[in-house]
Amino acid sequence: MNPSVPLIPDTAPFSSEQRAWLNGFLAGVFSRTPAVDGVPSHREATPALQPLTILFGSQTGTAEGLAKKVAKAAGKRGFAATVLDMAQADLARLAGERNLLAITSTYGDGEPPDNAKALHTALKVAASASEPARPLADLRFSVCALGDTNYVQFCQCGKDLDAWFEKLGATRVSPRTDCDLDYDAKFTAWLDAALGSLSSNVGGSLPPDSSATSGHKAPPTTETEPTYSKQNPFPAPILAVDKLNAPGSAKEVNHVEFSLEGSGLVYEAGDALGVLPQNCPDLVTELLTALGCDGEEAVPVPDGGTTSLRHALTTCYDLARPTAEFIARYGAPAPGAGGGTATATAVQHIIDIVLARPETRLAPAEFVGLLRKLQPRLYSIASSPKAHPGQVHLTVGAVRYEAHGRARKGVCSTFLADRIPVGSTTKVFVHSNKAFRPPASSDAPMIMVGPGTGIAPFRAFLEERQTTGAKGKNWLFFGDQRAATDFLYRDELLAMQTAGVLTRLDLAFSRDQAEKIYVQQRMLENAAELFAWLEAGAHFYVCGDASRMAKDVDAALYRVIETAGGKSPADAAAYVQAMKAAKRYARDVY
């Protein structure tokens, strides 16, 4: 065959760019493929794709989304990629793999995501043996760990997996990468290095930028990226900011409504909304005074370009927790230097260190170069898109406290409470969380435990079921400090109860009596009926504080299954694990 003769004629229904790509691809195939009886053999021209497993541990969906990106990229570089949920993996499964890329988040005090707990425990036990076996001797791997440097146990789950894989005989082909909240650049670099390392020893694999066996570029795609996303947030108009607590409450929780009209953004009950906040102008002014600057100095911004120092400190940089580089430059003590877990009230903020080190004078550009990029905050969405078309609602507790003799404000929570008047706009994006959804079956019972602002996604779940006419029973455990002032969404919940949408509503207001009562105690008081719901296939959901409430509720769930179900602790653990495997136990905790 003459490779100079186009195989795809001009009359074919393709664009000129697509025809050029296809002709180049086919010419490359026919020019190097041996003929059998005069017919080119396409089978011999294509190298065998190499298997690659992409393992993810994800609490809110970020690691899962990145795993899918890895699979797409790996497919263009000679791999047959399989995305594997850690909940579906065990040591025996991993022992049968040859190439593995693991992506996992960490939450709470260094804990693995819920879907990673069983595998995390199994690997820990196997690696902790005095003379561990080497079941992963044939495995080549690399780990990308996601975390938040505001937590002491930064990326701990990824660090654990990386160490245990190696201890069990696996070969690390590329160093572990630990990603902070602004993970895009590090993740991309890790992915390129990891795929490159795996490819270097894989016979017949494709070059790094190849997507076809000929080495030509992939044909133009017709897929288009959404107009608005995390990389390009939508300026959403504020429709309402209403305080949910009654006068006299010790708390301040706000119901915030945004318009999504014209954005093209879509969400489902269970998803989160990313909000890009701005720092308090008073704090910015105080910091400028301490720096001896007027705010008009030109400084670089994280994503390129320059702006005024005042604008950069307001919209671009994190003014709360300092980076390690900032601490070193100012000679300040490291967070948690006295041992233990650093708390919000114990950690010094940027302003504290600057005021304590007046002798340290930095040029504005050098100063901002030591700061973190201001990150979006994720909030569980409190509305169903079916009940509120074109809108998205949040339930946000305003954070205010005192530390080191100064009043402190939660960056985003007080931004939403104090500094965004109705009619103004705030940049937002939708963060999908497929692991936290109402039951797929409208007939399945649903048990929800959401004290305080943990009520947010369950308002969305109930609205969803009410709007769709779902027949499944719904049971909500809600609690807070006082019924008179802190019964969030009281009228809505009672109306749903009257309408039969909310089958059961159990309340726990901790300060309405001498002895404090919490939601986990209400669970134990109703153990028999709660277990009966579980036996009937109920899905069990928890939303709220990870450090205490979620742990206490988890312990209460085990106790309910033991006492009402007549099971041993081991059998109760197996029961819960089966619920998780069936996606009937989900948590949205923070």
Structure description:
- The protein is α/β, with parallel strands linked by helices and 590 residues long.
- It has four domains: 50-200, 3-Layer(aba) Sandwich (Rossmann fold), CATH 3.40.50.360; 234-277 and 376-431, Beta Barrel (Elongation Factor Tu (Ef-tu), domain 3), CATH 2.40.30.10; 281-368, NADPH-cytochrome p450 Reductase, Chain A, domain 3, CATH 1.20.990.10; 446-589, Nucleotide-binding domain of ferredoxin-NADP reductase (FNR) module (Rossmann fold, 3-Layer(aba) Sandwich).
- The protein is 34% helix and 20% strand.
- It has 20 helices and 23 strands.
- The strands form six sheets. Strands 3, 4, 5, 6, 7 and 8 form a six-stranded parallel β-sheet that branches. A six-stranded antiparallel β-sheet has the order 14-11-18-9-10-15, covered by helices on one side. A five-stranded parallel β-sheet has the order 21-20-19-22-23, sandwiched between helices.
- Strand 19 (446-449), helix 14 and strand 20 form a beta-alpha-beta unit.
- The longest helix is centred in the N-terminal third of the chain and has 17 residues, at 16-32.
- It is globular and about 70 Å long.
- It starts with 15 loop residues before the first helix and ends with a strand.
- The model is unreliable at 1-7, 28-45, 203-223 and 337-342 (pLDDT under 50).
